[in-house]
Amino acid sequence: MAAPGTGPSRRLVQYVVVRSDLVHTLAWPLGAVITQACHAATAAIHLFYEDPDTQEYLSELDSMHKVVLEAPDVASLSGLSETLREKGVAHKLWVEQPENVPTCLALKPYPKEAVHPLLRKFKLFK
């Protein structure tokens, strides 16, 4: 039996879900939308900094793995946030201020298999 920490490392993923209508319908500049995703990801890392998965994720800076998914609109993003909250999945819903507009959310890093089923209906952001 291998000593702890000597086997293959777990694949931790930070999922970020961004409203695609911001780009495709509301014509936000792509840079502004990317900024929203960066805010959410940074906030989630900050909020859950002491979490063991977050610490493990940060210890491997050169191999961090993020997946950016798209939510079609504010209703689907808000619905996802509520589902994640009900399931106890740690995340940060980013609400742009002062407009008070939910734009995206980011989960703390999780093993992929722990949260992927909850995100299955969301496709890669295009």
From TrEMBL:
Which EC class is this protein assigned? hydrolase
Q: Entry's Pfam families? A: PTH2 (PF01981)
Gene Ontology molecular function terms on file: peptidyl-tRNA hydrolase activity
* Catalyzed reactions per annotation: an N-acyl-L-alpha-aminoacyl-tRNA + H2O = an N-acyl-L-amino acid + a tRNA + H(+)
Keywords, A to Z, come to: Hydrolase
EC numbers, comma separated? 3.1.1.29
Q: Which Gene3D superfamilies match?
A: Bit1
Q: Does the keyword Hydrolase apply?
A: yes
List each coiled-coil range: none
Q: What name appears for this protein in its UniProt entry?
A: peptidyl-tRNA hydrolase
The species this protein belongs to is Conger conger (Conger eel)
